[in-house]
User: Fold these one by one.
Assistant:
Number 1:
Amino acid sequence: MSAVGIGIIGVGVISDTYLENLAAFADTEVLIVGDLDRARAQAQAEKHGVPAFGAASDVLAHPGVDLVVNLTIPAAHIEVSRAAVAAGKHVWTEKPLGLDRDGAALLLHEADAAGVRIGSAPDTLLGPGFQAARRAIEAGVIGRPLFAQTVFQTQGPDLWHPSPAFLFAQGAGPLLDMGPYYFSALISLFGSVDRVAAVGSKAREQREIHTGPNAGTLFPVEVPSTIQVVTAFESGQSAQSLLSFDSALERHGVVEIHGTDGTLVLPDPNQFAGRIAYVKPLGVLRDGMKTTQEWIEIEHADLAVGRGLGALDMVRAIAEGRPHVASGELGFHVLDVLLSAQESAATGVTVPVASSVAPVPLLPEGFDPFAATL
C-alpha cells in the first residue's frame, strides 16, 4: 500500500490547517480540493501544491480519492457526507456531525450499508495531551473519577469575527460551536451520557459586528449565548459545564477531573497538547499543618500535530482493521447530548439521552503521525 488519497470539500479558513497537516503525514496525500467557489478552490490548490481542484462533484468522482474530508458549513455536513458515502468514499467531517438526529442517524446507517467509515471532529482527543491525561486517569493517579468541571467563557466572537452572525444562529451558539470539544472529551473519559439538565440565557437579543467591512451592523441572537449544563453519565459520574459568549472574564480550556484520590487538570480540549498536572488530597489537617497543595506535573510527548490527525487515524485504522478513535458513533452521541441540553434549556426539564456509544479507544502505544506505516 501507499499513501491514502484524500479529497477535501470546502476550502474556508480551517482548510489551511488541514492541508498543511495532511501534507506532512506520510500516510495521506491530498489529491483534489473542491468548493462552491471554484476560484477559491484553485487558489487553495495552488497555495498548497494540490494537483487538482474543482467542485464537490469533482472530488467525489476522483478515482484516487478514498477518503473525503468534509469542511463545509455545519448546515451542509450531512448532505455532503451522504453524497460522499453514496460515491463509496470514507468520510471525515468537521464538527458537528450534523444538526439533527434523524439526518445524522441516516448518514451512519448508509455508511454502514456501504461498508465505509465515518469519522467526526474534534480530533483533539487524539492529541498527545489528551491521550496522556486519559492514560494517567486509567492508571489510577486520582483514584476513581467522581465528577468533572469544564469552563469556556468569552466575550463572544462578534468582537473579532468579521461575519459572526452564524455563530449566534440556530445550530451554533457556544453549545454547538464549542460544546463538541468539551463533551467529546468527557464522553471519552466517562462513557455514555444518561441524561442532561441545562439552563440558558441571552445577554442581548441583538449583537453588533465590530470588525471588517460590516462593522456596526446588528444581527439577531437566535440561541442562548450562555448555557450551563449538568450531565449524568451511565457510569455514575457527573459533570458541570459552562459555555458562554457573554463573559467579561476570558477563561477557557478548563477541564478538571476530580477523583477519590486527587484532581487532574487536562489540556484545553480545543488544543492538541498542553499542561497535565494533578494534586493529591491534603489528608487530615492538624494544628500548624501546611495547607498548600503541590501540583505534580505529568510529562508527555508534545508532537506538532493538529487538525487532520483524526483522518490519519482513520486511514491507519482501516488498514489495521481496528476501530478509529473519533468515530461517527461518538460524533452522533455528542450531537444527541448537545441537542438534549438545548431542549432542556428550552423546556426547563431534565432530558434523557437515548443514544449511547461504545468505549472510546485510545490510540495505539507509540503512535507516530509522521511515520510511513501503509
Number 2:
Amino acid sequence: MPTKQFLTAAALACALFASLPLFAEPLAGQASAPAAMNITPNLMGQLAVFAPAAGLAQSVVPAKASIAAPVSKGTAAGWGAEDDDLDADGMPGTGVANNAVASLAGETSGLRKTLISLAMTLRDIRYVRGGRDPSTGFDCSGFVRYVFAHAVGLELPTNSASQFLAGLKVNRGDMKPGDLVFFRTAGSRGQGRISHVGIYIANGQFIHSPSRGKTVRVDSLDESYWSKRFAGAKRPDALARSS
C-alpha cells in the first residue's frame, strides 16, 4: 500500500514538472503571445518610469506674496484702487449725445488734438475697476493714463489722487483740450477725497470712464452731478510745455 501511494505521488510530480515549461515559456519570452496578453507588461513598463514626485514638486502653490499682480516700472502699488464706482447714485445714465460733442478750436495745438483724437476713438469701451487697456476695459485713471502714454508718450501716475498732485494747476476758465479734470465722487456731494478723473475737451465737456455698468463717454461739467463734485483741473507737464 505505501508503495502504491509513493508511485502515485511520483507520477503526479513528474506530470507537474513536465508541464512547467508550458507556463514559464510566455514569461520567459520564448514564444510570441497574443497582443492582448502584452498589454499588462507594456503598461507596467510605462508606469515604472513615471516619476510622480517630480510632478508634485512643480505643482506646489507659491506663497501669496509671489502670486500678486506684477507691478511694472513706474506703477504704484495702489493701482486699481479707484472708488469711482462707489458713489454712483445720481450719476447720469448717459453722457452728451454724439452730435452735441464740442469741436476743438482751430488754434488747438497738434499735441492736444492728438490726445483728444485718441481719447474719442476709445468711446464705448466698458468700465472695469483697475482696467488700463481697451481689450479689457478702463477705470477712470487707467483710461487717462492709456491716452497720454499712447498719444504723447507721457507716463502719468497710476491713480486719480496721485495724478491730481502732478502737473500745473489750471483755473476752470483757463482750461484747454487735454487738461485733466478731477472730481470727489467717493464722498457726499464733493466732500470726499479725489477719486475720479477725466480729460477736458472744450466748451465745458470732458471724456472719461465713469463707473461700473457704464462706458467711456463725454459728459458736461455743467451737469449737476459733476459740477457739485468738481475738484479742479491740472495740466500735465508735456502740455504745459507745449502751451
Number 3:
Amino acid sequence: MDSMTHTNNFQSVYIHVPFCRHRCGYCDFTLVAGRDDLIPRYLAALEREMQAHDQPLVVQTVFFGGGTPTHLPIVELEQLLKMVTRRFPLADGGEFSIEANPLDMTEEVIDVLHSAGCNRVSLGVQSFQNKHLQTLERDHQGGEIPEIVQRIRARIPNVSLDLIFGVPGQTLVDWEYDLEQALACGPTHLSTYGLTFEEGTAFTTRKRRGQLTEIDEALEREMYALAIKRLQEEGFEHYELSNFARPGYQCQHNLAYWNGSPYAAFGPGAASYLQGTRRTNTRSVLGYLSRMEQGASVIAEAETLEKEHAMREALYVGLRRLSGMDYAEFQHRFGIDLQEFAAETIQRLVRQGLLAADEKRIRLTSEGIFLANRVMAEFL
C-alpha cells in the first residue's frame, strides 16, 4: 500500500489537491471539477497514503498545489492543513506555500491558512483584464485583485502572483498593463508563463477548429523580454526561467526541484523523487481513491534513473535556474567533471551564443533564455 519507501532523506513535501470549480480551457493538470462529493474520500485516502511515514518528519518546505487547494470548504481545508502539518511539521524558517484562487480568499480562509502556519500564497491572477480573463475562463474580475492581495498581505506578507502571456488576442500593450498592475499590488514574487496549448485540453480542440489563434512567436518573445526588463528594473531577480523574486523571496520549494533535492509527494498524479527513484501516482482521481481504499499501490510509474540519465536530467532541470549549473555542485552530486562529461555539447552551445561558460559554471546567455527548451534538450 505504501506509495513510497520509508526514507527520511527529504525535506520537501508536495500535496496535490485535485478539486476545482471549473477546469480552465488551457489546463492539463490532474483534477476533477464539480465533484466536491469526493473531498471526504480524498482526505481519508491522503491520510492513509501519508501513513507510510509512521513518525512525524520536520521538513523545510510544504507546497499545496492543484487543482485549487483553497476550493475546499473551510472545515475540510482546515482538516487537510492540520493533517499534513501534523505528519510533516515545518522547520523554523521553513516555507509553507499554497496555491489559491483569488475569489476563495475570504478573511475566514486567510485566517485558517495563517493559523495553520501558511507563510506564502501563490495567487492565480493570470491577467488584470476582463477580456483575457474571459478567454482564460477565470472566474474573477481584474479590478478585484488589488483588494484581494492587500487582504492576504495583511496576514501573510509573502504573496506570489501568477500571470499568463501569449493569450489569444493579447497585445504587447495589454501585457505591459498586466505587469504594471501586478507590480502595483506589491507582491514579493511573480511567475510569468507563456500560454501553451497542451494536447487533450479544450484550448487545443478550439485551436484545431479555428476558434482560437496562437499569438505570433515574435510577439510572445517580446512579451517575455518586456517582463524580464520591467521586473528587473523594479528590483526583482530573474532567478528561474518563469520566476522573479524580490531579494530573499525565491520559492524554496521549487528551488528544491531545480537543485535535484529529494522530495515526497502525495495525492493523485503527484510525483516524488526519493533515493534516485521517481514515482508518479495514478492521475485518475477516482482510480487513486479506490486504490487507496483497497490498500493497493497508487504508483502508476516508477523509474530509477541510471547515472548518465540522472546527470543529463540534472543539467536539463538545473539550467532552468538563471545562475546555471555549478561545476562543483555537479562534481559533488555525481563525482564527475561536468566539463568533461558534456564538453562537446557545452562548446557547441557556447559557439552558438546560447550558453556562457566560465571557470565556475555554465548558464544560459540572454539569448539562450529565449531558446531555453532547445538548449536544455541538447543535454538529454
Number 4:
Amino acid sequence: MSKIPTVDGIPVPPISLSSPSEPTEDDKKPLETAKDAVGSSPPSRFWLRMSAGWWRRLQYVGMSLHFLASPRPPSPSFSKKVPATISKEKGHFEIQVYVPEGYKKAKNNGQKFPAVVNFHGGGFTIGSATDDARFGRFILEHCKAIYVCVEYRLSPEFPFPVAVEDGADALLYIINHADELAIDPLKLATSGFSAGGNIALTSTILLNDHLKKSPKTAPKHKIRAVATWYPICDYTESREVKRARSTRPDQTLPANLTSLFDASYLYPPTLSLDSAYLSPSKATDQQLAEGIPETVIFYTCEWDMLQYEGEELAKRLGRAPINKDVRHKMIPEVPHAWDKSPDPTKPAAGSEEVYAECCKLLNEAFGKA
C-alpha cells in the first residue's frame, strides 16, 4: 500500500507520478539568494501569514490524532519563558520541559540529569514544541534525561535567522540555568525533526560562533551529541532537483507546501543561501569540526526529497578533517516525517524501534568520559 506523505501529522496529497516535473537547466544551477529560491514575485507577507495560519490549524488536528494512539505521549511538566538575547528580533519564546520519573526527589537530593534539547518540524512555519512528545517518552524512559522542547518563533512572522537564534538562545539559557533545572551541563544533546533537524545542527554552530566572541556568557558545558531526523541541509539546491532525485517523487512533499515554507522563511530576497546557519552543508570544515557535537546520530527517509543531501552531510561529518562519530541510518520505504503518522490507532510502523535505538546511542554519548 502506498504511504501518504505527512507534514507533522498532516496528510498531504502526493504529486502525480505519471507526469513528473523534470528540473530545467536553470533549476540545476546553484541558488545564491532567497530571490532565486522563491522567485522574483513572491506572495505578500500578509498572504503568507494567512496561509500559514490555515496550515497551523490543520496541523493541530493532525497532531491531535497522532497523540491518540496508545501508548499516549507525556505532557510537559512545566514551561519557562526565555528572553531572546542573540537575535536582533527582541522578545521571548518558551521552552516546554518534560522530566523523568523521580525528578523532584532527585533534584532535592542534588542529582543532575542529562538533557536533550529538541526542535520541532514544520518548515520553520508550522508546528509546536510538543509535536515530538512520542520521541520524548523514550528520552524520559530510556535515557532518564530531561527533555526540553523549544517553541522557537515561526516564519513568516519571524523569518531566518530567528529560529536558529532562538535555538542557540535556548541552549544558552539551559546552560546558564542548569543548576535551577537539575541539568548536568556536561551531558547535553540536541535533537530535531525536519526543520527542527536543521536547527539541531545549526544552533550548535551558531552557539559555538557566539561563544567565541562572548565566552563569558556561558559557564563550562558540553554538548555531546546531536540526533537529527530528516533535516533540510542545503538551500542552495532547488526543490525541483531535490524532488526529481527522490526514488519516489510521488511521495515527496507537494510544491505548494514547500513553496509556502521557503517563501516564509527565506527573506529578504537578498538573503544569501550559503550561510552555515541556514545550509549546514555549506559550513566550513572548521565550523563543523568546532560547532557540531562529537556524536552525530543522523536519520534519513528513503522516499524523502531530502534523503540525498542528508546522507551527503552525514558522510562529510564522518570524514577527515571533521572526523565526527557518525551513526547514519536511512529508514527504508518511508516518506518524510513518516513517524508523525496521524493514525489514532497505533504509532507509525517502526518509529518506536528507531526511537529506542536513538536513545541507546544518546546514552553511549552521555556515558563517554
